[in-house]
Amino acid sequence: MLKRFILFIINNLFPSFLFKTRKKKIVADSFLGKPFSGNAKYIIERLLELDTSLDIVWLSLDKNIEVPKGVRVVKYNSLQSVYEMATAKIWIDDFRKKYFPKKKKEQYYFQTWHGFITLKHVEKDIISSLSKEYLKEAIRDGKNSDYMVSGSKTSTGLYKSSFWFDGEVLEFGTPRMDAIIMPNKHVAETVDHKLGLNKDDNVFLYAPTFRDDDKESVSIYDINFKQIKLILERKFGGHWKILLKLHPNISDLEKRLINQNNSLIAASNYEDIQELILRSKFVMTDYSSLMFDAMMADKNVLLYTPDLATYQSNRGFYFKMEDLPFPLFKTEQDLQLGIEYFDYNSYFSSTRKFINDLGIHEDGHAAERTAKYILKKMYE
């Protein structure tokens, strides 16, 4: 009840008109207060290269996060965060905002969303499954967004049809995909340092999404990774490490899964999934759109979907799972055999055709284009 009252006050009565908009001020966040990450991270890095005089605010649940010089950290969903938005010329986000003051005419909101290619039905396409609270947030956020950023013809069409959005879709590419297309040569060293890996370790990343119906059960994610590790070492040689990166909605399950399987290394709190993908040779997920990020990084993607029929019935997909260019397995036995007989040449041929068919236009310069456009709007 108190939260609803606070929400009403901020969204309807906060006197944003009393606060002057500062032309060179930008407020950004990612996925409901995550650390410095997502599309906004890469946009801000380019903005700092282009103009060092900007006042950039990052909204985070943790005020002690690491950010570049020139970025201030403010508590996400705090009264100060509302003030920062009320006085900023530019807003950047990749998720729906719950609390924000009335946007003024001279302010611009760049909604970058958090998917590159979307597999699961979202927004208007699952409207009957959305909570009343989220639906109100989504509609309000969509109506306030001035721009969305797209990396493919497929995404552009989705944003126009399903996001309650009447603004302009900027086909600049997906900023966070820049790290995939033109990777930093020190990424592997960064990941190794943070997770305690050796430079000669081969990495298998397991990054499943969450289930709406049972967020407390670990059974669907409990796989015999000890056996998978043995197969990887027998098939490809070398020493293999298996990273576990859970969706933020179920990250609290990580400790239980690792306690049940000591072959796993905890990576759910690692802030940038792009870096984990780049460090990996294999990426396994189920229904997460990160499969497409890994595809663009030329990683070997596997789909493990033991609950496919149920999940598809509950959520729905924009693609037939069988038409995706990734090997798909519904049992652990099939998964183990799939790794044993993985054929890279066939896999590579399938992924290239899929990329061409979707009209993907990522070239590693999306963040730069977006940053330059933001600066243009800032000085209008």
Give me the secondary-structure topology:
Layout: H1 2-13, E1 22-28, H2 38-50, E2 55-60, E3 71-75, H3 79-87, E4 88-93, E5 108-111, H4 132-144, E6 147-149, H5 153-162, E7 168-170, H6 178-181, H7 187-195, E8 202-206, H8 225-236, E9 240-244, H9 254-260, E10 264-266, H10 273-279, E11 282-285, H11 290-296, E12 300-304, H12 308-315, E13 328-329, H13 332-340, H14 344-358, H15 366-378
Parallel strand pairs: 1-2, 1-4, 2-3, 4-5, 5-6, 6-7, 8-9, 8-11, 9-10, 11-12, 12-13
Helix pairs in contact: 2-15, 7-10
Brief description of this entry?
The chain is of the alpha/beta class and 380 residues long. Helix content is 39%, strand content 15%. It has 15 helices and 13 strands.
Q: How would you sum up this structure, described in words?
A:
By secondary structure, this protein is of the alpha/beta class. It has 15 helices and 13 strands. The strands form 2 sheets. Strands 3-2-1-4-5-6-7 form a 7-stranded parallel beta sheet, with helices on both faces. Helix 2 crosses helix 15 and helix 7 packs across helix 10. The model has no long low-confidence stretch (mean pLDDT 92).
Strand order of the largest sheet: 3-2-1-4-5-6-7
Choose one word for the global shape. globular
Q: From N to C, what is the helix and strand string?
A: HEHEEHEEHEHEHHEHEHEHEHEHEHHH
Distance between the termini: 41 Å
Largest sheet: 7 strands, parallel
Tally of separate helices:
15
Strand percentage lies at: 15-25%
What oligomeric state do the depicted chains represent? single chain
Radius of gyration: 21 Å
Structural class: alpha/beta
Name the poorly predicted regions: none
Based on DSSP secondary structure assignment, what is the total number of beta strands?
13
